[in-house]
Amino acid sequence: MKPTQSRIHLLMILLISSAVCLIGIRLHSATAASVAPTTGHSQRSIKSVRRTPISNTGIPIVLTSIASIGTRRPQWAQSSLAGEPVIRNTLLHAGKHPDLWKSVTPAQAVGAIFTGTWFNGAQRGLFAVTHTDNTVVYRTTDAGRTWSSFVLPQQQSVGATFSFINNQDGWMMSDQGSGAGTEGVNIYRTTNGGQTWQSVYRLHHPPTRGALPLFGQKSGIAFENHSTGWITGEVGSVRDYTWLYVTHDAGHSWHALSLPVARDLKSAFITTLPPIFTSKDGILPVEFSRTRTRIQFYRTNDGGAIWKAGTSTPPLSGFPAISFVNLRTIIVADGTHVYDTIDGGRRWTIIRPNIRLRPLFTIRFAIVKRGWAFLDNNGVVSAYETVDGGRQWKPIQAFLAAARHNPDQR
To answer: Contact, 172 vs 160, CB < 8 A?
Structure first.
């Protein structure tokens, strides 16, 4: 089994056991990404601020993922109790103190398995949970004070990935389970910000013309406009196979898309990752794994009609993680080093952090200096933060504020 396939399996396990939402690398000028990168901010150094101890006012918790980032700190996150495996989820909203969080999980979702999240700014967002016999999408527009819900016309799923092109128009890819190198998905669309969802693609048995193949592990979904989008993935047992599908009818039908591959990247296992966009300009990250891994950035300036091979990372080890601040500022970590570029990958700064970031699960950066890393050790997640671009990392202090009331659900 190649390293990237092992990582996909790890991510699927985490979706079920820790419900940390995944891969979706998605950026759009009108929205923040789901699983994904934050919009660009000016690069500036951040001075350390002396923090008032608050250990007597809250319960120690461990952040297990970050769903949305502001200019200086996370706005939404998920957590578990400190020192415990991630067996259930608590959805958090940032409090007034940098280390203090408040739980905004709706009562009906307590104890359920989170399968995916999408948040845009401090007020708006949604998340999906799976129950015994259905999947429910919860939505808020007031920072989690109140929630509405919508039951999807399907049985439970094991993962969900969101892509929005603005606050109203979005898609959700729902994973129906995987095994032996296959994975089936359903796709839903909303045109009212997640209040309701309509099925646009159902898993086909057997696949028909315009259907997605069952073979291959799907890594994410991303749309550039109301009609055109991509689903990315990999076939872990086949070298030189590019798993990439495109739709031009809002997700109803899908067709294979090929990419040019440089000669020095041949004989590799290939993993495509969801593209990110700013207007018509976009980047499609593609991992090429042999003894080591390189990430090639394919670029477009016509909304994805044509993708051209661009810059790439230095050779990477382990299971690399990637975070986009914008189309030019990219941070990559492989557990041993942190790499950053501010010119789209033409030049890379190589940083050796003060700790080994292994086993690395994901990273998120708000600006090139400030970021967060999440490590997974057999289901126990540890969280670290940096304010100097990845040179120095320290454990994140986080406390859960005393609950005053459960968020309302409409």
So the answer is: yes
CA distance 297 to 314: 12
At 25, list the tokens: 């690398």
For residues 192 and 198, the answer to whether their CB atoms sit within 8 Å is no
Cα–chain center distance at 326: 15
Note the pLDDT of residue 406: 55
pLDDT computed for residue 257 by the predictor:
96
Rg of the chain over Cα atoms, rounded to whole angstroms, equals 20
Helices marked H in 159-201 — which ranges?
none
How far, in Å, CA of 23 to CA of 104, rounded?
A: 23
Q: What is the pLDDT of residues 258-302, one digit of tens each?
A: 999 999 999 999 999 999 999 899 999 999 999 999 999 999 999
Exposure letters 3-18 (e unless 16+ CB within 10 A, then b): bbbebbeebbebbeeb
If you write DSSP's letter for every residue of 290-317 in order, what string do you get? SSSEEEEEEEESSTTSS-EEEEEPPPB-
Cis amide leading into 275 (omega within 30): no
Q: What amino acid is encoded at 213 in this protein?
A: P
pTM score, whole prediction: 0.83
- Is 2.60.120 the CATH number for 25-113+206-409? no
φ/ψ (deg, to 5) at 367: -135, 175
Which residue in 190, 139, 183 sits closest to 163, CA to CA?
190
Q: How far apart are CA 198 and CA 185, in angstroms?
A: 15
Q: Is the pLDDT of residue 133 over 90?
A: no
Q: Among 225-229, 243-247, 399-403, whose mean pLDDT is lowest?
A: 399-403
Question: In whole angstroms, what is the distance from residue 79 CA to residue 138 CA?
Answer: 18
- 291 CB contacts (<8 Å, ≥6 apart)? none
Q: Is beta strand 293-300 parallel, antiparallel or unpaired with respect to 281-289?
A: antiparallel
Distance CA 11, CA 8 (A): 5
